[in-house]
């Protein structure tokens, strides 16, 4: 056993007392531990101040005005009053069919995007493809798809395949292919290399390493991202409808234009309930996937 | 003085600890031994209240540990520091900040959340790091350290809590022999120098005999041995560890089956 000191200044507070007595010495021996904080704090405060100034500048530039919100508030109130009570006024069936179409657009679009992005995401992950040209090229490809919004994709596809839900599916598939590619490949890069090393050490090839080392690790993350996108796309599919690419959005625009606000309110409630159901089901699914991820 | 009175803990009907009554004197170095799953970890975690007992009472002086809530529970936890097998440091924070976590209960919450540490607290943390020869690592990220270094950081974090008890849960189980000695010496030094009570779960009987004043043997959630190391005879060890006892004490290799002539390939 090494030296066990038997000092007389025993007691649990001795550590603090001794340290404070030696404050000067400690400061001299470890200047970095005492000094850096000032510089860091100035930097932190500086960044915060800069962010606030930037936000204020943007507000001035974009004509932010509380007065305008205040003056317009009563119109929002009028809008709300006209919405009560929410009534389908005999169009419940038509609304349901449109909502079903919206769900179908979101489902097919998300599924297509996920199926296309899943294999390609591995090519964009540094830890799978170390070749910088391949993964850099894939990354930029995803960027291109992502930089165009779903709504713009919809407008383009309408010109190609005509009005209707098919254009909506293609629009969502394109925009989300870019988003999924980025998210999936980042999830793949965040994995632990130990499992892959274990597979490689047992004589597994590259395909085995991906299938048994990476996929079980990323599957729960990817599944929860896809489920969230399906839910989110149910909402964006309503916007897509507004430009004529099918679904419940076309009703929304039309009804708002003719001020049938009771029907609008009813439709919004229907969307709300649908999204809540999807959220409920997907959280159950996600839990099941996370719980059983070891068996994938 | 720490008193456990009929303490028990069940996990879904399964008893991890049953009816444990112990009195731990201040300033002692107590080793808790037994097989994996004997309830050693659960026992230590109940004292810190990371796990709540299903039955029984834990008292420290006139404090009823089992009834504490909120700020009082935090105060108690600061008084009984915990050391873990996997160190439980925050890997992405630097070593100094990790040690300063041991001062959280002495600093106001807004101050600590903004990391506005007082020089006094920094000094205490650095002085603790100096005691374990790792002050030069203060600015490094904790996950860049070796296992032995990380465990010393964890001990420094425990020490700056100015605790009355240190609960060490298998502190050396993932360390090599040299770091095992460094860490056990550090715990012994804290015990002797500051008079802090140490309760330490150990797998190795040799280490338990060398370092502890008192040994508590657990089996299937119950205390089956309580005495000084000299009383831990081979019979007692056999009771504790079952048939493995002799192997554990003497490290005799198990009897191997006869070799297949020509190797496994020939047999197949």
What features would you describe in this structure?
- Chain A is extended.
- Chain A is mainly alpha-helical and 296 residues long.
- Chain A folds into 2 domains: 1-64, no CATH class; 90-295, MetI-like (MetI-like fold), CATH 1.10.3720.
- Helices cover 79% and strands 0% of the residues of chain A.
- Chain A starts with 13 loop residues before the first helix and ends in a 5-residue tail after the last helix.
- Chain A has 12 helices and no strands.
- By secondary structure, chain B is of the alpha/beta class.
- Chain B has one domain (2-232): Rossmann fold.
- In chain B, strand 9 (214-219) and strand 10 form a beta hairpin.
- In chain B, helix 5 (119-131) packs across helix 6 and helix 6 packs parallel to helix 7.
- Chain B is globular, with a radius of gyration of 21 Å.
- The mean pLDDT of chain B is 87.
- The interface between A and B is medium-sized, with 27 and 30 residues.
| CATH A-level architecture of chain B | 3-Layer(aba) Sandwich
Query: What's the helical proportion of residues of chain A?
Result: over 70%
Q: Please give the alpha-carbon distance between the first and last residues of chain A.
A: 50 Å
Q: Could you give the order of the helices and strands of chain B?
A: EEEHEEHEHHHHEHEHEEHHH
Supply the CATH class of the largest domain in chain A. Mainly Alpha
Secondary structure tally: strands of chain A: 0
Structural class estimated from helices and strands of chain A: mainly alpha
> What is the count of helical runs of chain B?
11
Distance between the termini of chain B: 63 Å
Chain-averaged pLDDT of chain B: 87
Total discrete domains of chain A: 2
- So what's the overall shape of chain B? globular
Mind telling me the C-alpha Rg of chain B?
Answer: 21 Å
Relative strand content of chain B:
15-25%
Q: Report the CATH topology name of the largest domain in chain A.
A: MetI-like fold
Radius of gyration based on Cα positions of chain A: 29 Å
